[in-house]
Design brief:
Largest interface: A-B, 23 and 21 residues
Helix content of chain B: under 10%
Distance between the termini of chain B: 38 Å
Order of helices and strands of chain B: EEEEEEEEE
Radius of gyration of chain B: 13 Å
Number of helices of chain B: 0
Shape of chain B: globular
Helix content of chain A: under 10%
Radius of gyration of chain A: 13 Å
Shape of chain A: globular
Number of helices of chain A: 0
Structural class of chain B: mainly beta
Number of strands of chain A: 11
Oligomer: heterodimer
Distance between the termini of chain A: 35 Å
Largest sheet of chain A: 7 strands, mixed
Strand order of the largest sheet of chain B: 1-9-8-3-4
Chain lengths: ~110, ~110
């Protein structure tokens, strides 16, 4: 397996634009996680899914952020409208079962200008 | 979520063992101890995890105190490629949640 695949690797957008980040988890994994990393706040868990169902979205910063998982092999994190303070590296991770090893993607570096 | 405490940074010399400590005095009986590391410009990477007994794998060893209030990640021979931020995380298996919450970690520098 190629591991967790995120796209794009880098995204530069203007304030107010919609941004969509994509993630393909490892085949067969039933948990998917979205994280955000900044120098100030470190790695923050935004939301996680189990069997395509959102379980805990308490880390989503505000209504501008939304995440979906339409099927077991694809998830999106959308920011609309984007703001400069959303600039960060966004990681997607997947795991098989609870309390097991989580595999992280390479991340998407988002810059909002 | 039970919290962990780690030193902000540590230094080691290449080819020497490294002991990375973690305190988790409020650990519950159903908390697993996980270690991840994050190399520069990469996503976090699983290292090892355990519950009560010491654990060994190809990357490292995990030594867990008898009262489980602390643990130590042991890298037997540090290499330059081991320079990373190491995170000690508690993950509860007793309930329905599957959260993996990262703290600030320990930045390990390896000198040649």
């Amino acid at each position: 397996d190629a591991g967790v695949i995120q796209s794009p690797r880098h995204e530069v957008t203007e304030m107010g634009q919609e941004v969509t980040l994509r993630c393909k988890p490892i085949s067969g994994h039933d948990y998917l996680f979205w994280y955000r990393q900044t120098m100030m706040r470190g790695l923050e868990l935004l939301i996680y899914f189990n069997n395509n169902v959102p379980i805990d979205d308490s880390g989503m910063p505000e209504d501008r952020f939304s995440a979906k998982m339409p099927n077991a092999s694809f998830s999106t994190l959308k920011i609309q409208p984007s703001e400069p303070r959303d600039s960060a590296v966004y990681f997607c991770a997947s795991s098989l079962g609870r309390v097991t090893e989580a595999f992280f993607g390479q991340g998407t570096r988002l810059t909002v200008v | 979520d039970a919290k962990t405490t780690q030193p902000n940074s540590m230094e080691s010399n290449e080819e020497e063992p490294v002991h990375l400590p973690c305190n988790h005095s409020t650990i519950s009986g159903t908390d697993y101890i996980h270690w991840y590391r994050q190399l520069p410009s990469q996503g976090p990477e699983y290292v090892i995890h355990g519950l009560t007994s010491n654990v060994n794998n190809r990357m490292a060893s995990l030594a867990i105190a008898e009262d489980r209030k602390s643990s130590t990640l042991i890298l037997h021979r540090a290499t330059l490629r081991d320079a990373a931020v190491y995170y000690c995380i508690l993950q509860n298996y007793g309930g329905a949640t599957n959260k993996l919450i990262f703290g600030t970690g320990t930045l390990l520098a390896v000198q040649p």
